[in-house]
Amino acid sequence: MESRHLTHMRQAVKLAKYALDHNETPVACIFVYEPTDEIIAYGMNDTNKSHTGIAHAEFMGIDQIQEKFGAENLVEIFKDTVLYVTVEPCIMCASALKQLGIKRVYFGCGNERFGGNGTVLTINKDHSTISLNENKTYDAIPGIYRKEAIMLLRYFYVRENDHAPKPKVKKERILDKETFPPIIWSSYIDRSLFGQEFGLENLVHFDENTDLAGISNHGIDWKLIDDSCDDIVDTLEITRQKAQINIHKRIKSTK
Amino acid sequence: MVKKALNPLKIDFKKGIIENKLQQIRNSRTTTTPDLIKVWTIEVNPKDSKYVLDLIRTKTQKQDPISMLHIKRIRKITNSDTSVSLVVVIGSVELFEDKNSVQSMLHSFRKDLKYSNLSSSHEIPKEGPQTKELMLQWSDEYWPLVWRGNPNDQILNDYTFNMPFIEDILLKIHRLSQEQYENGNIYPIVTAFVDPNDSTNCIYACDTRAQQESSPLDHSIRIGINAVSKRLKERKKVIDNAHTEGYLCLDFDVYTTHEPCSMCSMALIHSRIKRCIFIQPMTMTGSLKHKSGDGYCMHQHKLLNSSYEAFQWVGDKLDPPEISQSTCC
Ligand SMILES: [Zn+2]
Ligand SMILES: [Zn+2]
């Protein structure tokens, strides 16, 4: 795994932690323009505050790109854009990303209830969701900072009280810091893509459905998810503002 | 729940067509093997059966996310000493997560209730089967079931339809779609959002992706959901009650000229709508009909935790302007 993927995903995880600290579902993403390796947008869930149920992190990022670079350039930019998101995009977001023709997606943990990149449906490889780029499908690669992404969700659910319409008769919620479900790599990618992305020496993880060692230092990067990071939004905002110029140059020069 | 014979609507139960005008859209996968779910059972002495039935009636039946109207709650067993016991289904594992919560519920209901063998080892079919033969077979294999007719008949019979209202809205979106087309919109797709508590004030949304400054994702359904949100915010200035469900279009009816794409059909799941009625199927990109696209049947996909009703207009000809089948609507 190239270190830039880890660097970008760390930013997404920090942003998800920021969301958690501000009473929002801890799911966040970073859009990176690959030719220049620059962050061009970021997103957090806004479903609690917006009350729409569709204000997912990915759409905040898409809106930022559209606002800065113009709707007419969206598809051109997406062709070379990679998304880093802490939780697998839901079916709706996976479809939006496909229609815009995103280049690739990296995510942390699977989305058990709504995942559109392999868990529930595999929208990124389907026939019915039409991509506006020539790349008809995209790869979605799981497992990067997976345990950290899961832990952030657990923090959220332990804290959140029962809002469900029909409250279950529940045992007391206990924060589980030790056990993690196996990661079924083959639900998302095939063995050869795994080898390309993570190195042939790691294929044992693919075969045994285990997490990659090294990424999480054999465990969990507690510092990453426990330290507060209130400056992350400012940092990302400055970064994305800077990125604007380079992309404009590129789009103009290719015309 | 109306009796079938008393329903004022004309329903073709075999084909799932209401008043010759609305075709119910279902996942036509016919199940011969059921989805199973574990249930909590206890054994009691037959003389205590009335307490247990009372317990089910007051403490678990209404609360259980799994409906058990299709199973027999009680099964007789003969013990090795020829005495008879009753095995009773208390509730699903969706209702009670662990043994302790069942025990404390039983205790709070009746301190001296005598029971034994509390376990969650029995499995029942999550839903009743479509035919009587299958019902007998499953009763044998899993747990005794009750036959109440094809469950889909009851579903159809329980739907409520205000046909004149529905036709009115469909005509309206159809007309708007024609107008859009005549004004040069190459995506003449129109959706109406109807709030069950404010049905005279519905929101009409047009696909705007052909406009300047618009994104390719500005499908009419997304535009509509955002318009509903905007109206709510304007009316209330701020959304103050953080404890409302949080689902903006809860129980809305949505009328749309073209069968929605994967993004939009899922957006409707997230929005918790009640019903979607469309006019024109999209054979390549549609996500509701099992013959459309990849056959997602998003409105009642088994793995998603919520669903909505879907119907296609099959009544008098309403022909929305033709658009390319490779368009996501
Ligand atoms: Zn999403
Ligand atoms: Zn759509």
Automatic annotation (TrEMBL), chain A:
Its cofactor is Zn(2+). Residues 3-121 form the CMP/dCMP-type deaminase domain. It catalyses: adenosine(34) in tRNA + H2O + H(+) = inosine(34) in tRNA + NH4(+). Signal peptide: none annotated. GO terms for molecular function: tRNA-specific adenosine-34 deaminase activity; zinc ion binding. PROSITE patterns: CYT_DCMP_DEAMINASES_1, CYT_DCMP_DEAMINASES_2. GO terms for biological process: tRNA wobble adenosine to inosine editing. Keywords: Hydrolase, Metal-binding, tRNA processing, Zinc. The keyword Cell cycle does not apply. Belongs to the cytidine and deoxycytidylate deaminase family. ADAT2 subfamily. This is tRNA(adenine(34)) deaminase. It comes from Maudiozyma saulgeensis.
UniProtKB/TrEMBL annotation, chain B:
This is Similar to Saccharomyces cerevisiae YLR316C TAD3 Subunit of tRNA-specific adenosine-34 deaminase. GO terms for molecular function: tRNA-specific adenosine-34 deaminase activity. Gene3D superfamilies: Cytidine Deaminase, domain 2 (3.40.140.10). Keywords: tRNA processing. CDD domains: nucleoside_deaminase. The keyword tRNA processing applies. Belongs to the cytidine and deoxycytidylate deaminase family. ADAT3 subfamily. One of its GO terms (cellular component) is nucleus. PROSITE patterns: CYT_DCMP_DEAMINASES_2. It comes from the Eukaryota. GO terms for biological process: tRNA processing. It comes from Maudiozyma saulgeensis. Residues 164-311 form the CMP/dCMP-type deaminase domain.
